[in-house]
UniProtKB/TrEMBL annotation:
Source species: Nocardiopsis metallicus
Subunit structure: Homodimer.
HAMAP family: LeuA_type2
Residues in Pyruvate carboxyltransferase domain copies: 37-313
Gene that this sequence comes from: leuA
Residues bound to Mg(2+): 46, 252, 254, 288
Coiled-coil stretches: none
GO cellular component, one term: cytoplasm
Protein's UniProt keywords contain Ubl conjugation: no
UniProt-recorded Gene Ontology molecular function terms: 2-isopropylmalate synthase activity; acetyl-CoA C-acetyltransferase activity; magnesium ion binding
Name of the featured protein: 2-isopropylmalate synthase
């Protein structure tokens, strides 16, 4: 019988289910995203206001420069009426001429006259700027925070917009561009008809038209529903707003349910033109939607994100330094561990994937970097974000032969034969059972050297000479140390391995060679060679390995290695 789940003791009855939107002819599920939306980074505002220690001026400048360098063209730089620090930062950007001509800064304010005035004052001298005004419109906020009815709530937005326009005229005069953004805060809990009514009233004041857009930002201030409901809300607004062609429909998803990225993506499918978020998902509570994830999700679908993530670790380091909060090791695209496989079957598939990719690129006459990426378990090429392949495969108790042999190949150019991979992987596993934890690449090499290359077995070749007769018979003469004694051995066969096997019979060492593989360990003429011998000795089947600049010496060493192993 299937085990029956029990009723949770938690008080789930205290919470209301979210209401679906009545939109049976929704169109967004059939849409695909083919181009990047307009991005706004609110790292310096929503991100900053949620930090344990808000950024000082130096850190704010660092983030601003990072955002500009990455390619963000709309940057919310603060809440100037909040503090002198916030105000002064905006002033320093403008007065020190730090804002590139193609970057638009914006500043946030509550819909209060005195705060709006101070906010607009902070922008004096800016070439391109936007004031962003918000007031909460949801029923709980109307009742609890503002203690107002619908009409009075709408009036706050309308009056606020008028103040913005009046103060802009008073303080800013003619600028290259002055824009306006309005957010009905808590949009997701606001009745849709009322959200629309407030936005229309705000537009009636701002009067959007050709060359005079308005940004209407519909925030999931607290994410409260599945992403499809948010998408329905956005599609409904997009369909019902007047002057739609002059409206930049913006979304501002938070991540309270952990679905901020999905909400943003479905919202874009539903008609949103613009997305606000923060790098690595900083922001209130569980954060704003992560701009890195959104951008890289597009990239991984072949869509230009219009943002440069090619040095993801530099981006991460800067964000960690400025926010003083760590990025989780499993954070999409930027976490330390996200391109690393520990588990055996993943490592095996990745290793095969790399080999296959190299082969197909070569066949197509293309550089691997230009060939379509298709490697199991790696959604993107780590090199595209500035990572190398060092960390792709790491070995612990969950790993198998694929991972171990990948490291031997990557770090030491040793292409272990399949059955040797199995044998060596068991050797590593035995160590792992004793030592536990992760097995670093150097430690794997140490075990390999001790196991196969130590030359501490009963037979060691000190020198050898060989000749081939006309009939092809190969003769070898070797000076060898056998059980501590120096002996001169001689044997014949069809090659060094069989001749040496024959010679060993004289000293009572019986070796039956099962398999032999050799390869060069590099491209240049001075490259060394690796030889692998699988042999049955005293009833045991073992592998031996030899490495030397002479392939014959490498083969003899491999024989001695196998004898030592047996
Ligand atoms: C969802 C968001 O992230 S919104 C952005 C939130 N960010 C911040 O608040 C950071 C910066 N804020 C601050 O530094 C301060 O809040 C300040 C300086 C702006 C204002 O401080 P104070 O004047 O002390 O007001 P306080 O922050 O307590 O705000 C509460 C008052 O503002 C009113 N209010 C809140 N939001 C708004 C708004 N958007 N528009 C108009 N009034 C508002 C409240 O109703 C309340 O009024 P009451 O005192 O008459 O009841
Ligand atoms: C000010 C608004 C846009 C906000 O941050 C939110 O609603 O989350
Ligand atoms: Mg927010």
């Amino acid at each position: 019988m299937v085990p029956q789940q029990k009723t949770s003791p938690m008080p789930f009855h205290r919470y209301e289910p979210f209401a679906p939107v009545d939109l049976p002819d929704r169109t967004w599920p059939a849409k695909t995203i083919t181009e990047a939306p307009r991005w706004l980074s609110t790292d310096l505002r929503d991100g900053n206001q949620a930090l344990i220690e808000p950024m000082d001026s130096a850190r704010k400048h660092e983030i601003f420069q990072l955002l500009v360098k990455m390619g963000y063209k709309e940057i919310e730089v603060g809440f100037p009426s909040a503090s002198q620090t916030d105000f002064d930062f905006v002033r320093s950007l403008i007065e020190d001429d730090l804002i590139p001509d193609d970057v638009q800064i914006s500043v946030l304010t509550q819909a209060r006259e005195d705060l709006i005035e101070r906010t607009v004052q902070s922008l004096v001298g800016a070439k391109r700027s936007t004031v962003h005004l918000y007031n909460a419109t949801a029923p709980t906020f109307r009742r609890v925070v503002f203690r107002v009815d619908r009409q009075a709530c709408k009036d706050i937005a309308v009056e606020g917009t008028r103040h913005v326009m009046r103060f802009a005229e008073q303080y800013l005069g003619e600028t290259e561009y002055f824009g306006y953004e309005y957010s009905p805060e808590i949009f997701v809990d606001t009745e849709l008809d009322f959200a629309l009514e407030v936005c229309e009233a705000v537009m009636d004041v701002w009067q959007p038209g050709p060359g005079r857009e308005i940004i209407l930002n519909l925030p999931a201030t607290v994410e409260r529903s599945t992403p499809n409901v948010y998408a329905d809300q956005i599609e409904w607004m997009s369909r019902n707003l007047s002057r739609r062609e002059h409206v930049v429909l913006s979304v501002h998803p938070h991540n309270d349910r952990g679905t901020g990225v999905a909400s943003a993506e479905l919202a874009v499918m539903a008609g949103a033109d613009r997305v606000e978020g923060c790098l690595f998902g900083h922001g209130e509570r569980t954060g704003n939607v992560c701009l890195v994830t959104l951008g890289m999700n597009l990239f991984s679908q072949g869509v230009d994100p219009k943002i440069d993530f090619s040095d993801i670790d530099e981006i991460r380091r800067t964000v960690e330094h400025c926010t003083q909060l760590p990025v989780a090791p499993r954070h999409p695209y930027g976490g330390d561990l996200v391109y690393t496989a520990f588990s055996g079957s993943h490592q095996d598939a990745i290793k095969k994937g790399f080999t296959d990719l190299d082969a197909r690129a070569e066949e197509a006459g293309k550089a691997v970097e230009d060939y379509p990426w298709d490697v199991p378990y790696l959604p993107i090429d780590p090199k595209d974000v500035g990572r190398n392949y060092e960390a792709v495969i790491r070995v612990n108790s969950q790993s198998g032969k694929g991972g171990v042999s990948y490291i031997m190949q990557r770090d030491h150019s040793l292409d272990l034969p399949r059955r040797l991979q199995i044998e060596f992987s068991q050797v590593i596993q035995a160590h792992m059972d004793t030592d536990g934890g992760e097995f670093q690449a150097e430690k794997i090499w140490g075990v390999f050297s001790d196991t196969y290359l130590a030359e501490n077995g009963p037979v060691a070749v000190l020198a050898h000479r060989s000749s081939t007769a006309e009939d092809g018979t190969y003769t070898i003469e070797a000076d060898a140390r056998v059980n501590g004694e120096i002996r001169e051995l001689k044997g014949t066969g069809n090659g060094p391995i069989s001749a040496f096997g024959d010679a060993l019979a004289d000293v009572d060492v019986k070796v039956r060679v099962i398999d032999y593989v050799e390869h060069s360990m590099g491209e240049d003429g001075n490259a060394r060679a690796a030889a692998y011998v699988e042999a049955e000795i005293d009833g045991r089947t073992v592998w031996g390995v030899g490495i030397h600049s002479s392939i014959t010496t490498a083969s003899l060493k491999a024989m001695c290695s196998a004898i030592g192993r047996a």
